[in-house]
Amino acid sequence: MSEDQAAKIIRVSAVVMRDAEGRVLNVRKRGTTALMLPGGKHEPGEAPVDTAVREFAEELGVPLERSRLRELGVFRASAANEPGHIVEATVFEHPLIPAAQSAGPQAEIAALEWVDPRTARADMAPLNTDHIFPALNAGRPSERPTG
């Protein structure tokens, strides 16, 4: 058993994209209830930035410009859809792409929603509520919480 399996850590990459009003694009995967940032698990040997680009394109059908991604940090939180697991997310921010505003769900995505990070919601993934949204609201997106 690998160290990751023993610790029940799921390594992912995710993308913060905000619209002109500051709302953050979120997705809900089929068969789940929590909204989360677009992104997903790394393929073997895949760099986190490459995972972010691939997953965003798969989930929304919108290609990201790799050179415009800015790493916000690595964050850990309880996994929203896998009880007993911890998600370790390398989170990137990308400027708004107009096509993302009219994108529809693809792959395993059931719904897209632009969420105000200042509004508390019960249907948010812990990564958002515990780390990403507080950092965005405090104007410190480059903070690297360890919780």
Summarize the structure in short.
With 147 residues, this protein is of the alpha+beta class.
Describe the structure.
The protein is of the alpha+beta class. Helix content is 23%, strand content 28%. Strand 4 and strand 5 form a beta hairpin. The longest helix has 13 residues.
For this entry, give a set of tags.
alpha+beta; Nucleoside Triphosphate Pyrophosphohydrolase; two-stranded antiparallel sheet; 28% strand
Question: How are the elements arranged and paired?
Answer:
Blueprint: H1 3-7, E1 9-16, E2 24-29, E3 39-41, H2 48-60, E4 70-78, E5 86-93, H3 98-101, E6 109-115, H4 126-137
Parallel strand pairs: 1-5
Antiparallel strand pairs: 1-3, 2-6, 4-5
CATH class: Alpha Beta
The largest β sheet comes out as: 4 strands, mixed
Strand content: 25-35%
The CATH topology turns out to be: Nucleoside Triphosphate Pyrophosphohydrolase
Strand order of the largest sheet: 3-1-5-4
The ordered string of helix (H) and strand (E) elements is HEEEHEEHEH
Total number of distinct structural domains? 1
Q: pLDDT average, as an integer?
A: 88
Helix/strand-derived class?
alpha+beta
Q: What is the overall silhouette? A: globular
Tell me the Rg in angstroms: 14 Å
CATH architectural grouping: Alpha-Beta Complex
Tell me the number of strands: 6
Estimate the helix proportion, in percent: 10-25%
Unreliable residue stretches: 141-147
Q: Termini distance?
A: 25 Å
CATH superfamily, by name, is Nucleoside Triphosphate Pyrophosphohydrolase
How large is the count of helical segments?
4
